[in-house]
Amino acid sequence: MRLDEALDVLKEKGYKYTNKRAMILEYFNDEGKYRTAKDLLNHLEPHFDGISFDTIYRNLHLFSELGILESTELAGEKHYQMRCTNHHHHHFICKNCGITKEIHCCPMDTIGTELDNYMIESHKFEIYGLCPQCQEQA
User: Fold this and answer.
1) Which end of the chain is more exposed for a tag (fewer CB within 10 A), N or C?
2) 84 among the known binding-site residues?
3) What pLDDT, on a 0 to 100 scale, did the predictor assign at position 24?
4) What's the total number of domains in the chain?
5) Of residues 93 and 89, which shows the higher confidence score?
6) Is the CB of residue 85 less than 8 Å from the CB of residue 32?
7) CA atoms of 67 and 92, how far apart (whole Å)
8) What's the CA gap between 55 and 40, in Å, rounded?
């Protein structure tokens, strides 16, 4: 999702456009990979004196509910990134730096025959490991 689309979703759903919300969305837009609430807090603290984890988590939850951000869990902690485009794909996610790579093949293409008579409502497929840069550093 592009930044302007994310801001439009906020407006369409009747949520206020604030400097904090704009900066949060800009952060995820610029990062282009999965980041934690702590990463976001560290980014915002110099700009917003006394910003709390409550504020961070409230906004992360809101943006997730609105479909602006998507999340995954790495090392027992939730990580967020801007929602990808609307075409169907899956992800490789680096467990070290959070960068993602799109995977265009879908395991559902072969699994579907094993699930005859089951109603599939959705699915999510992610592969975790180390990207080439993080492998070099290890």
Assistant:
1) C
2) no
3) 96
4) 2
5) 93
6) no
7) 20
8) 11
Question: Is 81 a residue whose pLDDT tops 80?
Answer: yes
The domain that holds 110 is classified in CATH as 3.30.1490.190
Q: Which residue is it, tokens 């700009």?
A: 47
Are 12 and 28 part of one and the same domain? yes
* 97 labelled binding-site residue: yes
> Per-residue pLDDT tens for 115-133?
888 888 888 888 999 999 9
Residues 65 and 123 in one domain: no
Which residue's structure tokens are 């504020």? 55
Looking at this protein, which amino acid is placed at residue 77? E
The range of the structural domain enclosing residue 17 comes to: 3-82
Q: How far apart are CA 34 and CA 74, in angstroms?
A: 10
Q: Is 88 annotated as a binding residue?
A: yes
Residues 65, 20 share a domain: yes
Contact 126, 72 (CB under 8 A): yes
The CA radius of gyration of the chain, in Å to the nearest whole number, is: 17
Domain containing residue 44: CATH number: 1.10.10.10
Q: In the listed set 35, 65, 82, which residue is the last one of a domain according to the structure? A: 82
| Residue 104 assigned to a binding site | no
- pLDDT value, residue 68: 94
